[in-house]
Amino acid sequence: MSKDLAIPRNQVERLLNIYKLDEGQKNLIFQEFTKFKPQTSIRQFIKDLSKRIELPEDLLQNFFWFSFDTYEVFLESGEPFNKFFNNLIKSPIENDLPDLAKEINNFTDLRNFFSRMIKIVDFEYYKVFSLEGINQINIGFSNIVSLYLFTVRDNIVLIDAGYSTKYWQNAFHKALNDLQINLKEIDYCIITHEHPDHTGLVTELKRANPDVKICIHKIAHELAKLRKELSENSNLEEKIRERRQLLISYGLKREEVDLMMQRFGTGGMRFEYNEPDLLLNNNDRIVDGELQIIHSPGHSVGHICIYYPKKGILFSGDHILSKITPHLGTLVIPGAEEFNKKNNYENILEHYLRSLDIIDELNSRIILPGHEQIIYDPHERITAIKNHHQNRLYEISKIIENNPLTPLQIALHHFGEDLDQMNKMLAISETLVHLDYLEFQNKVHKTKKNGLLLYWSENLWEKIEF
After folding, report:
1. pLDDT of res. 270
2. Positive or negative torsion for Cα 313, 277, 194, 185
3. pTM of the predicted model, to two decimals?
């Protein structure tokens, strides 16, 4: 197959399945996608759309994600659309997939359909909102990421740096243009944690502005190095094989694990690593002493929140969100379990709950999170999250009371069975975090039988109401 082929055979087949729909169905899909709002869940939108227009969910899912993936490839190519289509779509199909090429009567018609398809929604969506001199920059769709840009004593501070993709860069530059700020004017970029949706633009920022101070907690720095080293390490395949066996022991079928490993095997580790200018510790004061660093392990063990005492505002990253409880656990990151064990972060939920109490004691007026909506009653939200975890501990202990089950079985009981691959991985990871907590409290037992890991409890967890 040609090295220039931008989409593999199975994607060409899926494209043709959509292209060969009758014109009325295709026009209906295009028409319906104009109603998609970036702030909404794409998964829920497609579920609702499938019921409304009576087309299969998987077809609509593929329609959307094929559109998104190809739009990214198109942007990265830097070519005009017609040249992109001819070089990376038409020619490879004709040369490498002649049997599929025969199913296309008119490549001009396919090109026109394709040009509509990759623009079904505004992938470069952004919005700027200002609150008490702090600019919130929202970028993306579905799981919108919020960056924060503001001035502290003549220093321009950026909190987090989003994704590294081209559409993200384009949206970020449009937002900066609205704010009449140049990359070269930013003095500090403070990273809440090392995940790719918070570090992506650091390389571009540093390239444009060598004087900017990139700041990250020392543990997040170590984790970022670990992820980079693992992605370049010849032992990565061995690590993935170990992960495969681990997932099978959790109750997943081998075929399902193979699919998951193809998609998530590296845990999204292939990102550019940047040496920070300033390594942070808990309670450090930076930017002329105006911003306080709060080490808040949980979503990542190197996570920090940033407190701005003069305004009573907390930047919470992914530690505290307005609607969902942040994911805890490291199942999707090879090597992280060993790191946590070595650094005494095995009981992640314990650390997370303790850090919530520390943040609650700050009595901040407002929380500005890395996703979702602004939180105007921090104490109420923190209390709700703590009670949520108490309920989850109780429900999990109830599911396994005198009833040995695998982590997968427990997760499906607790989270429901309608989970895609990624959410199934996250559900298992979240379940394991709560099982670990119960195990540290001597409230659960575990054993291995026929290669499967089984957990059970003899007594229900006694909930604490906050």
Report:
1. 47
2. positive
3. 0.89
